[in-house]
Amino acid sequence: MATLKPGDKAPSFSSKDQDGNTINLDDFKGSKLVIYFYPKDNTPGCTAQACDLRDNYEHLLKNGYKVLGVSADSEKSHQKFISKYDLPFPLIADTDKEVLKAYGVWGPKKFMGRTYDGIHRTTFVIDENGLISEVIEKVDTKNHTSQIIK
Fold first, then answer.
1. Is 51 marked active-site?
2. How many domains is the chain built from?
């Protein structure tokens, strides 16, 4: 689904996190960034993925990665999700789907014979210079960190 590929410049964005703080891609210049797009707060796969990243957060930091989650959920939904699972990283509330569309992860999906628009679970690893170094489309929600740090 994602049209971005390794070597591409990561699309710039400016959006609000769970606390209403503005987060920009430029905030992460000089750091490696894991930006993961997921369908919905408090669903089984999304919770497993967030908790795997939480449980391995120190390992990610030690390897120079910062983490940012993105879904179309509201700031309030993100606040509850972070609080319930003690997530140590920010979540962007992309309710207008601008970041989702910029990264090419919003589009047609099929489920039980029905087609609808939704978020394709995808993770982008962005290097210190703002270039995409990896695109993970087949996300293993329970072991996602091992897909990022090999």
1. no
2. 1
